[in-house]
Design a protein that fits this description.
3 domains, mainly alpha, 0% strand, disordered N terminus, 248 residues
């Protein structure tokens, strides 16, 4: 809502109750909403940054689940988080640009052009979604094993709170959500071509298509066809039953 200077002047000169109330509601709504938004940004940012430091410290204590050395775990953590970054962002970017004319950006975004060319072959978008989903679930499980510190003793801390924050994997959830999922999705939604043109995007896409090619997620198609048939039979049963009742 925008109140012009003329409206504000009329409010004070004429003293119309409706305008006074309108101005008051506008000021209260605007400032309350802004303060609430700032509070959300602040607590979420501090909680996420704190989670990152706790994860890095927890890895140094060798308190995680994954049976790997500390140095290797640091490398795996950042590598898998980066892969998840690409997987989440590419999903948004590919769907957003699926029906765009790739010739219009062939010179400006050559890697995005190559990616668009391979992904828009018959059924490749569906294949990418299946392979990408497998990779996303896999990275999620690996990150959960790194960011769940079940061997970290709660010495000097409340055991219940320590379990909720550290041992349950909550700090991993906040970190992965911010850096591995929401941030790439927001970037890809606003800059889909630039995201697709980043080094590594094409490789991640090819890997996703490969995992679909070996059939890791094809059981879902079997269940899909079976469920679709059952739903169709159920729909026909109710349709015939109601039709018969109305005829009678």
């Amino acid at each position: 809502m925008y109140l012009s200077p003329l409206v504000l002047m009329k409010t004070y000169l004429t003293g119309e109750p409706s305008l006074h109330q309108q101005l008051l509601n506008y000021l209260l709504t605007t400032h309350t909403s802004s303060l609430f938004d700032y509070a959300k940004y602040l607590w979420s940012t501090f909680a996420t940054i704190g989670s990152v430091f706790l994860i890095l410290y927890g890895i140094s204590l060798d308190a995680y689940v994954l049976p790997t050395p500390v140095a290797a775990t640091y490398f795996i953590f950042f590598l898998v988080l980066t892969i998840l970054f690409y997987l989440e962002g590419l999903m948004i970017a590919i769907v957003a640009t699926q029906y765009w004319d790739k010739e219009t950006w062939k010179q400006c975004y050559p890697r995005a052009y190559m990616l668009h060319e391979i992904i828009n072959r018959p059924d490749n978008v569906k294949r990418f979604i299946i392979g990408r989903q497998f990779c996303t679930v896999l990275t999620g499980f690996i990150l959960a094993q790194i960011t769940t510190f079940y061997k970290w003793e709660s010495t000097g801390y409340d055991p219940v709170l320590f379990y909720i924050v550290v041992k349950s994997g909550l700090i991993g959830v906040l970190t992965v959500l911010a850096f591995g999922q929401l941030m790439p999705e927001l970037l890809a939604q606003e800059y889909p071509l630039r995201f697709m043109n980043m080094p590594g995007s094409y490789s991640v896409c090819v890997v996703s298509l490969f995992f679909d090619g070996v059939g890791v997620g094809h059981a879902a198609w079997s269940f899909y066809y079976f469920t679709r048939g059952m739903l169709l039979l159920t729909y026909l049963y109710f349709y015939i039953s109601f039709t018969y009742l109305f005829i009678l």
